[in-house]
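Hi C.,

You asked whether I'd gotten around to modeling the 65-residue construct. I have! Everything is below, sequence then structure, no commentary in between.
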Amino acid sequence: MLNFNSIFQVPMVGSDVCGFAGNTTETLCARWTMLGAFNPFYRNHNADNAISQEAYLWPRVAAAA
């Protein structure tokens, strides 16, 4: 992943906001969203058996976004 940065000078490093494995909480997802704003990119991505964690589902997370 970091080789892409050295070749093209574009940092394509990000995180799975709200976590990937297991369920998250509203507070944790809001903090991840605020931190993700400083990454070149981030995605809201989780496992199939976890609860939905889109930003619009929780008021605190939507406000943080």
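If it helps when you're writing up: The chain has a mean pLDDT of 78.

Thanks,
B.
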